[in-house]
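Deliverable D2.4 — example input (structure tokens):
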């Protein structure tokens, strides 16, 4: 089932230039925050980051021809301090126990290495869209750092879309107290108008291609209202010495 979803998403990617334009901007910003060295994308899914960064080592929990390796973010198959960057693009909220991932990230990243997260953001504007129109659930009351027993029947695409909002905004002091070896160096709330109008991977687009550029220019003026309007969150986390 998960392979079918990724194949479908890859087909949608090819058919929706508006969606590609939005993601390409986000990929470029993600790449701008990387430090030199070996980069691994976890939850690489459709493999689209490779078009902008061919050297990235792309992984997911399923076997697909455009991925480099099958890897579980909770048990990384990499040597200690062997990585410079871990990229999680739309994948942090799918991890069953994010605390196991951050434990592994501390081990696998070198000092100065970074985790780049792009994930859903729960704002006043995005809440009803994610709640009623998006196929993945969210729970703002969950503590993502509480270790849960593994569920044998858990599907790879099970999710809580609120994870990044909880960890890096609503309960950030808890994250920092649990992981003092990590420093959150940058947070940007983004995606205000163009992304919901694009229909994402599930719906048709309401946004004509010629309108994308002016709307993106307008969105730059809205960033001060990110906590009210944003649909996405970009987080940069650095491993301290």
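Example output (designed residues):
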């Amino acid at each position: 089932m998960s392979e079918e979803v990724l194949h479908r998403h890859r087909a949608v990617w090819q058919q929706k230039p508006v969606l590609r334009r939005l993601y390409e901007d986000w990929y470029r910003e993600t790449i701008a925050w990387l430090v030199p060295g070996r980069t691994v994308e976890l939850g690489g899914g459709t493999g689209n980051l490779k078009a902008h960064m061919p050297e990235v080592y792309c992984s997911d929990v399923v076997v697909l021809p455009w991925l480099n390796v099958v890897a579980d973010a909770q048990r990384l198959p990499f040597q200690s301090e062997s990585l410079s960057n871990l990229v999680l693009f739309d994948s942090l909220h799918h991890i069953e126990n994010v605390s196991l991932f951050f434990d592994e990230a501390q081990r696998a990243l070198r000092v100065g290495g970074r985790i780049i997260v792009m994930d859903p953001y729960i704002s006043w504007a995005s809440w009803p869209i994610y709640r009623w129109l998006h196929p993945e659930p969210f729970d703002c009351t969950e503590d993502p750092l509480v270790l849960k027993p593994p569920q044998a029947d858990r599907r790879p695409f099970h999710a809580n879309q609120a994870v990044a909002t909880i960890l890096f905004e609503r309960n950030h002091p808890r994250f920092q107290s649990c992981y003092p070896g990590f420093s959150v160096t940058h947070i940007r709330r983004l995606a205000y108008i163009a992304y919901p109008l694009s229909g994402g991977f599930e719906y048709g687009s309401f946004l004509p291609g010629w309108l994308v550029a002016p709307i993106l220019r307008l969105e730059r003026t809205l960033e001060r209202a990110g906590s009210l309007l944003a649909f996405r969150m970009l987080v940069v986390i650095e491993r301290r010495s």
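Residues 2-239 form a domain with the Rossmann fold fold (CATH 3.40.50.150).
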